[in-house]
Design a protein that fits this description.
With 396 residues, this protein is an alpha/beta fold. Helices cover 39% and strands 20% of the residues. It contains 15 helices and 14 strands. Strands 5-4-3-2-1-6-8-7 form an 8-stranded mixed beta sheet, sandwiched between helices. Strand 4 and strand 5 form a beta hairpin. 45% of the residues are buried. Bound molecules: adenosine-5'-diphosphate. Adenosine-5'-diphosphate binds next to helix 10 and helix 12.
Length: 396
């Protein structure tokens, strides 16, 4: 079965055509700078790679170009649009409404629209992608896979903020969590590597956005992002957890507007705020050369991960494995080493040599005899979406 996976952002569409059940990536690419004067479409199928630079006025135009590339006689991977049996859409916010992957109906679209307020940057372009794909791949089953739904298994005591309950019940203010497709995918891979579903795992997704999940017996039971995408760990440009008093101090005492504060905490903070750089490679290089602020930023970053490992081990009363994933988690031996340092009390012992090896493979980097296994598992959200779409389409 050929599945088209679409991740439609405000100015980009990431796409992949994946053949299930053999998990073959037939084609992949990116439409970028939608709506700007200079757009680009990148396409890859097997060894063939091609980029065209053309303005892409809107998502409709972008997706039409993608379809033309996929149908191309020489480098395409489809004979007919009908070859696509399922289109899997990443939808960032499913609120309380979606606990699992679902077929897209008018009701589902209305609900995604109702959730625009909770994810104003993401849900609107996600819905646009759905509407365009419904027209272009009209005979295919359209499936929505939500970034939040993996975390709908959080227990009430974990997802409820200690604010008046009416705010939760009437205004839907609670923890939702994000990066769920990635946490679900890597935790499933880790369960397979451990060889047992009854397991206590901590998944650590470290990209530009960062989050951690406590996964007990395959279910998310705690998570570091909350109502929005700025809580918990230190991220590329987001501050992660801070005391809410700082926000009121900035507004009431220092005269910042709420828009200013939002901009500072989400776009100018995190590793960027601490060092002037958001790319971890640059920060690591500077720290190595003796830059004290960069070293401090790495210390803060790793310390937050380490504390969260401790707190999730307590939540689950045990730990079988921790999993590092996404750009930093997969590639930075420095952050992995710092985050795992001095955790032998919890049975976490890193093998420094295995940690230093660079690879794209799933791997175990714990010491022989470490009670807790330490895995590096490259995330693959597209494959996660395709697998969900395949599961739903074949079980119905
Ligand atoms: P996104 O959240 O945008 O998908 P990614 O998962 O691609 O982000 O992760 C981006 C982050 O990964 C950047 O901070 C980048 O510096 C970091 N990264 C990528 N490769 C390396 C590397 N070799 N060493 C350290 N950090 C890396």
């Amino acid at each position: 079965m050929k599945i088209l996976v679409l991740n439609s952002g405000s100015s980009s569409i990431k796409f992949q055509v994946i053949e299930k059940p053999n998990d073959l990536i037939l084609a992949s690419g990116l439409v970028e700078k939608i709506g700007l004067s200079e757009g680009a479409i990148h396409y890859k199928a097997g060894d063939y790679q091609h980029t065209v630079h053309i303005p892409v006025p809107d998502h409709q135009f972008g997706l039409e170009k993608v379809a033309i590339l996929l149908l191309d006689k020489e480098h395409g991977v489809l004979k007919d649009v009908k070859d696509i049996e399922v289109v899997g859409h990443r939808v960032v916010h499913g609120g309380n409404a979606f606990t699992k992957t679902t077929f897209i109906t008018d009701k589902v679209k209305d609900k995604i629209k109702e959730l625009f307020d909770l994810a104003p940057l993401h849900n609107p372009p996600n819905l646009t992608g759905i509407e365009v794909a419904e027209e272009m791949f009209a005979h295919a089953k359209q499936v929505a896979v939500f970034d939040t739904s993996f975390h709908q298994s959080l227990p009430e005591k974990a997802y409820t903020y200690a604010i008046p309950l009416s705010l939760r019940d009437e205004k839907n203010i609670r923890m939702y969590g994000f990066h769920g497709i990635s946490h679900q995918y890597v935790s499933e891979q880790a369960i397979a590597m451990l060889g047992k579903t009854e397991s206590k795992i901590i998944t650590i997704h470290l990209g530009n956005g960062c989050s951690m999940t406590a996964v007990e017996n395959g279910k998310s039971v705690d998570h570091s992002l909350g109502f929005g995408p700025n809580d918990g760990l230190v991220m590329g440009t987001r501050c992660g957890a801070i005391d809410s008093s700082i926000i009121f101090y900035l507004i009431n005492q220092l005269g910042y507007t709420s828009e200013n504060v939002n901009n500072i905490l989400s776009k100018k903070s995190g590793m960027l705020g601490l060092t002037g750089e958001s790319d971890l490679r640059a920060i690591e290089a500077k720290a190595e050369a003796g830059d004290k602020e960069c070293q401090l930023a790495l210390d803060i970053n790793a310390y937050r991960i380490k504390k969260t490992i401790g707190s999730y081990a307590a939540s689950m009363n045990g730990l079988d494995a921790i999993v590092f994933t996404a750009g930093i988690g997969e590639n930075s031996d420095v952050i992995r080493r710092m985050a795992c340092d001095n955790l032998d009390y919890l049975g976490i012992e890193l093998d420094l040599e295995k940690n230093a090896v660079r690879s794209k493979e799933h791997r175990d980097i714990s010491k022989e005899g470490s009670k807790v296994r330490i895995f590096v598992i490259p995330t693959n959200e597209e494959l996660g979406i395709a697998s969900e779409g395949y599961r739903l389409a074949t079980e119905s």
